Amino acid sequence: MQGAAAEDQGGSDKKPAVTSGEKFQKGQQSLCQLPIDDEQLQLAAAYVSDAQYNRNIQFETSPQAIRFYKLYNHWSTQGITYFFVLVDLLLGLFEDPAVYLLPIWVTSTVEFMCLLIFGLRLLHFSKITPTKVFWKDAKNICIIVSILLTVMDMIIYLTLTETGYFVVRWSRILRPLFCVNFTESRQLRRAFRNIRNTLPEITYVFVLFMFSVAVFSLMALKLFAKRKLKTGEGAPYFNNYLDIFFNLYVLVTTANSPDVMMPAYEISWAYSIFFVIFIIVNTYVFMSLFLAVVYNDYKKHLKNEVRKLVYMKHRKMIEAFDILKVKNGTEFVVLDSHWRQLVKLVAPEIPSSHRELLWRVSDEEQKGFVGRECFIRLADLLNIQVIQMKERVHPLENCMPNMYNSAVSQVIRRMVKHQGFRYTYDVIIVINAIFIGGDETNPLISKAEWVFLTLYLMEILLKLFAYEPRAFFAKSQFWNWFDTLIIIAALLGTIVNTALKSSGGYSSQQVLDIVFILRVLRLIRIIDSFQRFRVLLNTLINLIPTMLTYAGLVVVVYYIFAIIGMEAFKGRIRFYGANSSDPAAKYCGNLALKGSQFAALRYCKNNFNNIVSAFILLIELTVVNQWHVLATGFVKVTHLTARIFFVVFHIMVVIILINIFIAFVLEAFFVEYSLARSAVETAVERKIQELEMGDCMDHPAGNLVEAMETNENDFGNTGDKDLKSGLRFKIASM
Q: How far apart are CA 532 and CA 529, in angstroms?
């Protein structure tokens, strides 16, 4: 060691001393020159993409498997799968009982093609996952079994139909399973898992609730059976235990209140005490308890789901980091060049300026590399929607600079941007609402409509004069688009309406209806004038994508019940048309309904004669108003056991599904309505402000437009001065 030190000292006379800063720069240069294997980069990109989209798929890591995996997750292959799932579900429109009946061979051929696509999709999935993992996955087994059962049912159905036998297409209830069990439907499966996990706690409350109804039913039997009371229709009142149980169950939903109480109440007011206590205990206490239990369990299972997702995302990002890491001193890092290549592979659609912004957030100290913790944030960074804008000059300022910059022009622009301009038009909207509620045939109101349209057109033109047009009509400016489209549509509708009237041959009520609707829609503009209204509306809009998951869940449940209902009740009830003179129209084509409340209320169109009518009927049952009348109608034309179908539907949809949906909306609304931001969003926002590239305006003032088609050199490594030339960023959720 001493010899080496002496040698170093002796050589110092010949070589200049190297500073620590120069050593660091040389080290950085050597690190940046390290190449990375393309296959390894593709594998890391697959892991990051999985973390970004919360995919938890175990896939093979061979180059061929990664290419297959990338193709499997491509929007085109996913779109094809969704398209054929939708086609498979829509076959219900064309099969007996049908909205428009097609030959059996046509629907069978289309269904076979759908099954073939499903099989190919599953085969594709088997090529990217380990064999043991594939066969242990329950959703893959479910798809295979569903395909085999459907093919078997199709063969039996076609064979027996040709020989003249009546056959039930029972495999149609399996169609929604394809929608649920494909890998792309992970959100739908999570919703089903929430239901499955919540069921045990709900079951205890439900059993106690049913016991309460049973006890009250027994008390009602003892109270009223021997009094020989009659209902309003002349039927015996509360003399059969099963009928009492059903009627009291309906009373919980308030659908038959106060009708069910009236025969007893007419005898003595004291009997009303029984029904009041029943409603308090079962309608208010137990139904509230259902919601409380569902909400509590939903929150608990949601936290578990989030923990699993966070763990999975963290694990995927660590695997990507381990592939790209290089050693820099005592720590492992990912280099700038490798990071940029990775982001370009994972999100090729974002421009280089956006990538540079994300890099600045990740590499706060501009070292040229990021550590593990900063790298792991990449998946969250990619999920933040950043609106990129570019400063532009107003077209009028380019064409007529003297006019646009004149004193009069500046006064007009200041006036339009002033809050008083908005308040003035708010008052105009309120006055317009009063006129809309008036009589359309009044000449004063008709002329006033042209005045309001002129004022609204002036407003749009003045705003286009004050604001740069491309900024005014940017993708993020929803209310500007809404105002303009509504005003233009109302103007065109009013012109057409006036032209038809003046021609003397006016007969288009549809045009008039559209004009009325457009006039009413203009009133929605006032929502944008109140900050709290905007917050609430934006919160609801942000919830829509997640709410679509539960909408899909409802469609799946509805489809299954619709298919069962069509097979059980098709043709039992007929609708003859609103103006039919056929005597059978009075009892819906079934003598069993003659004199029934179902026929008297003209409910004949509420039937299971095709899938559209079935869905509408199921929606009516979900609303629960008069659902007992609908159920009783189908009981009369079939059998008493038909009540089971309607009670099970009520339990599944109204008690379980709707309560879970309410719990989801409450929790999601609390999260969205909160003003708190995530740490990653805060970091991005802080970096935007540090670079002085933020858009501080709530409305499209200045000359800002969407400029996502940025050139590669828009935001390069040319220094902060060049970075800020004309570019602005804004987080979409701000």
A: 9
